[in-house]
TrEMBL record:
Sequence positions that bind Fe cation: H121, H125, D315
EC class (word): transferase
Signal peptide: none
This protein's name: tRNA N6-adenosine threonylcarbamoyltransferase
Keyword terms, alphabetized: Acyltransferase, Cytoplasm, Iron, Metal-binding, Transferase, tRNA processing
The protein's required cofactors: Fe(2+)
Location in the cell: Cytoplasm
Species the sequence originates in: Asticcacaulis aquaticus
Function: Required for the formation of a threonylcarbamoyl group on adenosine at position 37 (t(6)A37) in tRNAs that read codons beginning with adenine. Is involved in the transfer of the threonylcarbamoyl moiety of threonylcarbamoyl-AMP (TC-AMP) to the N6 group of A37, together with TsaE and TsaB. TsaD likely plays a direct catalytic role in this reaction.
The Gcp-like domain, residue ranges: 30-321
Pfam families, per database record: TsaD
Amino acid sequence: ANSLCVLGIESSCDETAVSVVRRADDGTVEVLSSVIHSQVVQHAAYGGVVPEIAARSHVETIDDLARLALQQAADKGVTADDLDAVAATAGPGLIGGVMVGLSFAKGFALSRSLPLIGVNHLEGHALSVRLTHDVKFPFLLLLVSGGHCQLLSVKGVGDYERLGTTIDDAAGEAFDKIAKTLGLGYPGGPALEREAKTGDATRFALPRALLGRKDCDFSFSGLKTAAAKIAMEQVKTPQDRADLCASVQAAIARQLVERSARAMVDFKEANTVEKPAFVVAGGVAANQTVRRELTALADKHGFEFVAPPLAYCTDNAAMIALAGLEHFAEKRAAPDFDGDEFRRES
Ligand code: KG4
Ligand code: ZN
């Protein structure tokens, strides 16, 4: 049978996560469990993720989370005996956290004689949409999170072409850093969006990055500097602050739109798909302004806008299980398969 069941583990940043994902014979993907422990309150006081605290927290929680994820899957009739493989994030990420998850996965796989698949964290994000949507290859992906800001052409499992990336901060990082300058809480993205609701987005003129560059790269450092300067010199009242938040949000959204527009043109030149998917993943996809503008852009360029549910947009283990599963399915079908493949990518 082609049915496959994989335990996934994610621990590369500030979320410890374990999941069981099954792909049925007919290709239907089912998330049997996806449990997450967010460390956000542990890092909030520092205004960002502290690697040492993150690594220790992963150690403290990972076994309980695994027990919970396995229990939830068992409640749906799938036990540890039904697992075909274990997948864990092997990088990139904070090394202390990666090592916790990967070592835990190695031990688990060894104890149950299961193959272990190391998964590239970004590949997890790239494929996460397939947990819930039957998106066909190739598709265009905009990955916008706290750690990443990339445009990728996703041609197949393990076949990705990077069209653009950030030359400094990630989009979420820009939201977080500017929010911090303005005295908003951590994580800054949601806080800044809330403030922006009552602000005037046309109040402050902010620089447009990389204007005239004919690639799909991003840059947010100029915006960050300009916002900090305005915050210091012109923000006196709550209304000023709301106006700056709205202006910043509009500037970030505009850059995402401009670069995605270019990527869409390139993608259409390279592929002859009728109506390709434009998938937006990562925490910033939660931003309503960003979402609305990217949806309009996709319509304009003949793409279908697809955003995974938020639970699979932000860091989670279901996407790691699925990426591992899709690789394992290919490996298992190969003639030289020896049942114990370990891939290391970062
Ligand atoms: O994907 P994610 O959970 O973690 C990473 O892998 O980085 O993304 C978190 C990022 C943070 O930078 C956060 O500020 C941003 O996504 N974010 C938002 C919103 N919600 C989360 N940014 C803007 N508006 C939001 N509503
Ligand atoms: Zn991530």
